[in-house]
Design brief:
Largest sheet: 22 strands, antiparallel, barrel
CATH topology of the largest domain: Maltoporin, Chain A
Strand content: over 45%
Helix content: under 10%
Distance between the termini: 19 Å
Shape: globular
Number of domains: 2
CATH architecture of the largest domain: Beta Barrel
Structural class: mainly beta
Number of strands: 46
CATH superfamily of the largest domain: TonB-dependent receptor, beta-barrel domain
CATH class of the largest domain: Mainly Beta
């Protein structure tokens, strides 16, 4: 453990330090922490000797530094904005001390000083870790956006995935409710419902996959190190279900050297609704100094409702309660081994759905029953790493489980066995319930080597087992009738690899491939198989698919600050079986192929990234609504998506950063498949031209400002405005309704010191309604004009403290 250096100790350091003629850059990964902790970590990562005399400097909070730097460069960045400096006193040896300004020599009649505007600090070299072999951002050949976890406040972390959507314009989501949504990236969207299909976005928590064929669990973003979004497809590295890209959240690991903790809390006032409350705490325990550490987190929130149900005479029915926690155990046995054992758990309970009906009111509807929902999620993983300099071996084993329950208001089914006969308008009210139980086991072994300028290679093998059980029922008082359910199983065995070489100076070429063999199986639940498989008897048989996904990419550093890139990559999803009313039918796997080109520029003042992509999508899997209102799944045909994206950050002066982003999408169904629907639905479906949920435009502008008020007291403020363009809800006449075309806004101000402060945040400043997801119950969408408005203007007053 690094301690303040006495003159004798410092002298011994200087004498025993090896003389190094020229420092070499190393991969630096320092989070925001105390000076003594950061110095110790930096010494281990660079081999430099670093000391300080004043004991009062030990607790000084320093800036995070991540990237490839020499020890002197890393020290300069981590101490930026403080009154201390690192002075080199010998080769690879530094003394950290307070900076004393030189005395000013006063002369007669001095000329007025010329005040130079304070320049913004140089940008840190960002490392993309979601590539699984740590590639510098300047060398990465593709679209990527990274959010530093230290930028996420408690108010933003409370929003979970919505915070990612608000910060990154290329990410979109449905809004049926927390724990029920699907994510999309850069216009690759299939449908608004969560059925047996995989999401088009791969979601990862650290090294482990979060979901396979399940909705986004909306894990809270407390105590995370970073959020990385890789624009897709990402089939080579991540396999099935990464058609649109990958969202990877990296939690903070236990600190093996320091006992520390933090807590936060807040109260929320919702205009037109009920108030809410949230809070949580983090505790870090070094069980054995520098060897074993434990980090624990617990949180909870109650978000007040804002939808009134006039038929039942109830107000603010859509309250949501969320509780959860995490624990991480890290062991550093030495010899560059690291072992991490992590556990994540979270439960979301919604009292009622959050949709409204335009014919009744902006925040009102009329329903006969409550439509609650629930999402239970848990994850356990074990990750072991071994480093030999630039070579790293990673082995991981994970288990994820999820339980999703939903209830919709519907109408009693007819007794007819003809699938084209719909229920009559006078049918009795009914409650349709669906419960999904998902379990997934994953294992992976990979070996990677990191080189300069993004060169290196990766070789890996992985196994996956996923089981999804769906049970359905229809309740019509006083009867409870089970409906056909389905059990889908997928087993995948994969080998994949990627290598980057630099054949000529400043030009890198990346080649990769992934070979996956998937075994698919399915069976019926609650209903005899003779009935369930009557329409498609072949759906009962097990089958397999083998896919090879090639990839190629190139990057050229035209200048130190400018990178040009191009890439071609593919992604896929295996097929499965789905239920349409009482019958089980197959759907085939789909595949995307994307060609992309772009440029990335980074300077101390301006960051700018531009990209254009064209995607070909075959055998599109889409979740539909059949003639009875039941969600089902089928292959909708082939399509294409054209996208143009721009992301920029401007730092005109120190303490101020402005950002802007714009994504334009154009989608089209180029060839339609025959979908078994009632006759009039099939005819109308032939008129579908665009893919669902692909907004024609999304954009964001934002600002972040930091100002020192006095010693130790700082003001920070940030705000944003995000526009979501028009899209359609789904495929077919029932779902071909327009949604989107709204602006979401927010602002947050914090005043305090590094270790404690108070904050005020406001979301939906304009109190807009919008239409984020125009569906409440699929059984009522034919006759009612349903819409899902934004949460009304909400104000949160919060506090945070740490020790």
């Amino acid at each position: 453990m690094v301690r303040p250096a006495s003159p004798l100790i410092l002298a011994s350091i200087l004498v025993t330090s090896p003389a190094i003629a020229q420092e070499r850059a190393a991969e630096i990964n320092l989070g925001a922490s105390r000076l003594d902790t950061a110095i110790k970590q930096l010494s281990r990562q660079t081999g430099a000797s670093i000391g300080f005399r004043e004991s009062r400097l030990a607790g000084l909070q320093i800036r995070p530094v991540r990237g490839r730097f020499t020890a002197s460069q890393a020290l300069e960045r981590m101490l930026l904005g403080t009154d201390i400096r690192a002075r080199r006193v010998a080769p690879a040896t530094y003394l950290v001390e307070r900076f004393t300004k030189p005395a000013v020599v006063r002369r007669p009649r001095p000329s007025p000083p010329v005040v130079q505007p304070e320049r913004a600090p140089p940008p840190e070299e960002i490392v993309v870790t979601a590539t699984k072999r740590d590639i510098p951002l300047g060398s990465y050949p593709g679209g990527v956006q990274i959010v530093d976890g230290s930028e996420l406040s408690a108010a933003e972390s409370l929003r979970g995935t919505e915070a990612i959507e608000a910060r990154i314009a290329s990410v979109a989501s449905t809004h049926l409710g927390p724990g029920r949504n699907k994510l999309f990236i850069r216009g690759i969207a299939d449908s608004s419902f969560v059925g047996p299909t995989q999401s088009t976005v791969g979601q990862y928590w650290g090294n482990s996959r979060i979901t396979y064929s399940a909705p986004d669990p909306n894990l809270r973003l407390y105590d995370v190190k970073s959020v990385e979004v890789l624009e897709g497809p990402q089939g080579t590295l991540y396999g099935a279900g990464s058609l649109g890209g990958v969202v990877r959240v990296v939690p903070r690991s236990p600190d093996l050297a320091n006992f520390e903790g933090s807590a936060w809390g807040g109260v929320l006032a919702v205009q037109h609704g009920k108030p809410g409350v949230d809070g949580g705490a983090i505790l870090n325990l070094p069980i054995k100094q520098d060897v074993i550490g434990l980090r624990m987190l617990a949180f909870g929130s109650v978000e007040g409702g804002y939808i009134d149900d006039v038929a039942r005479g109830l107000e603010d029915v859509n309250r949501v309660r969320t509780f959860g926690g995490r624990a991480g155990l890290r062991i550093d046995p030495g010899d560059d081994w690291t072992v991490d054992l992590n556990a994540v758990g979270q439960r979301i309970d919604g009292d009622d759905s959050q949709y409204a009906e335009r014919s009744i009111g902006e925040l009102d509807r009329a329903s006969g029953i409550a439509q609650p929902f629930r999402n239970d999620y848990w994850l356990v993983d074990l990750v072991a790493r071994k480093n030999w300099g630039s070579l790293e071996l990673t082995s991981s084993l994970g288990y994820a489980g999820q339980y999703v329950f939903e209830r919709f208001e519907g109408t009693e089914l007819t007794d007819s066995n003809d699938p084209a006969v719909r229920p009559t308008a006078s049918a009795a009210a009914a409650a349709y319930s669906q419960a999904n139980r998902i379990s997934m086991i994953t294992g992976e072994l990979r070996l990677a080597r990191r080189g300069e300028n993004g060169t290196g290679w990766l070789l890996a093998a992985s196994l996956l087992h996923n089981r999804t059980q769906t049970n359905r029922r229809m309740d019509v008082a006083p009867f409870r009738t089970p409906l056909t359910g389905v059990n889908n199983g997928v087993e995948e065995a994969t080998i994949y690899g990627e290598a980057t070489v630099e054949p000529v100076d400043r030009f890198t070429l990346t080649l990769g491939g992934r070979l996956t063999h998937a075994s698919l199986s399915g069976s019926s639940e609650d209903i005899a198989e003779a009935v369930a498989f009557r329409i498609d008897p072949g759906a009962r048989a097990s089958r397999s698919e083998t896919r090879f996904l090639p990839s190629v990419a190139a990057a050229y550093r035209a200048a130190d600050r400018l990178t040009l890139f191009a890439r071609f990559q593919q992604g896929f999803r295996p097929g499965g079986i789905a239920v349409r009313r009482e019958f089980i039918q197959r759907f085939a796997g789909d595949r995307v192929s994307t060609a992309e080109a772009g440029a990335r520029y980074r300077s101390p003042v301006l960051d700018l990234a531009l990209s254009v992509s064209a995607t070909r999508w075959t055998d599109i899997q889409a979740d539909l609504v059949d003639g009875f209102g039941f969600p089902t799944t089928a292959n909708a045909g082939d399509g294409r998506v054209l996208s143009i994206g721009m992301v920029s950050r401007w730092r005109p002066v120190a303490g101020l950063e402005l950002d802007a982003a714009l994504y334009l999408n154009n989608s089209k169904v180029t060839e339609r498949a025959f979908v078994t629907l009632p006759v009039e639905d099939a005819v109308a479906a032939a008129e579908v031209e665009r893919l669902p949920n692909v907004a024609d435009a999304t954009g964001r502008i934002g600002a972040a400002y930091t100002h020192t008020l006095r010693d130790g007291l700082e003001l920070t403020a940030n705000g944003y405005a995000r526009y979501v363009g028009k899209s359609t809800l789904g495929i077919g006449p029932l779902l071909g309704r327009l949604q989107g075309d709204y602006v979401d806004t927010g602002i947050e101000v914090r005043v305090g010191e590094a270790r404690r402060g108070i904050s005020l945040s406001i979301t939906n400043l304009l109190d807009s309604r919008g239409n984020r997801f125009a569906l409440g119950s699929p059984f009522l969408i034919r006759d009612r004009d349903q819409t899902t408005p934004l949460r009304p203007r909400s104000v949160r007053l919060g506090f945070d403290l740490s020790f």
